[in-house]
Amino acid sequence: MTVTIDDIRAAASRIEGQVVKTPMNHSRTLSEIIGAQVWLKFENLQFTAAYKERGALNKLLQLTDAEKKRGVIAASAGNHAQAVAYHGARLGIPVTIVMPEPTPTIKVVHTEGHGANVVLHGKVFDDAYAHARQLEDEKGYVFVHPFDDEAVIAGQGTTAIEMLEAAPDLDTLVVPIGGGGLISGIATAAKAIKPDIEVVGVEAAMFPAMKDIIAGREPDCGGDTLAEGIAVKNPGQITRGIIAELVDRIDLVSEDAIEHAVALLVGIEKSVVEGAGAAGLAAMLDDPDKYRGKKVGTVLCGGNIDTHLLANVLVRELVRCGRIARLKIAAEDRPGALAAITKAFHECGVNIIETNHHRVFTALPAKDTLIEVECEARDEAAIEALVEKLEGYGFKVTRSPIV
To answer: Which key words tag this protein in UniProt (predicted)?
Structure first.
């Protein structure tokens, strides 16, 4: 293997005290939901809110004085950018980060805030990556790869050492896969410490690149996944070899499962986790039978999620669990119709959030109106009771699903 347990232990000593030794906690509520003992490694509590600091720092600390003076460069639109920028500034190493032009301004500002020189180039990550390699040649920078580098992989593997120190009886580790750096380091360390432990990789269903490659298929990737941190079309060469050797299987998770996991972590653990960071929990929620009765650990590998997007995820979760609904109520367009409808809402204890009348853009007769009501209740049973009462009053009611 290109990375060994000795490399990872050396990395742990090297970065000790310079990254957060994040909590590894047993989740009583999630354990009850899944039917397993579920342990969570809160890497979203790193200073830059992601595990990427471990690998980036281990790489930077091993540069020669001449390499440090030349400076480093990386291509990233996310957590790797902030990790390299932050620790580069701490160590006095000049850092250049190449980001795609559409990168959200907040990510650019955060990266620049850590002292990095940000270069915006190209429309997608591949464009930014190619430009970063070009600048590496032209300027003599040292390239810090986000995942396909032995020093980076060894740094990420320190996560597993901490997990097994906190919970040595774990049967299974469930780890998100993007480029493969995190799971390569974790699998290397975990299998060396506990050879019979099961290591499961998780990819977003829209980006099954590593699973396809390991199976000998051409990767079929694409789509706007919530787990953009693991939306990698071209995973590493080093990492795919390690994964093929040490990872027991790779599971795919749907967008619904990822959204559900993000929402549960906010509601149950009071912790903000990005889509990629919640992928391991999503896999357990998606197919709990695979984990029932086991002692399972997963890494909440990042917490950098846009606040507006997080708000959407949380509201959509309320819709899925029946707390929020949008009802379309067909009624005669006459005085008293709306009063009768609001009376039913009051009697059922359902709160009206918003209402809209549609008289023109509807297939109803000209004398009728379509009243669309967004409402909130204590549970789905209250909404069902409301629909039954409205229909008892003679109204025709349909409920809008999430499509």
So the answer is: Lyase, Pyridoxal phosphate
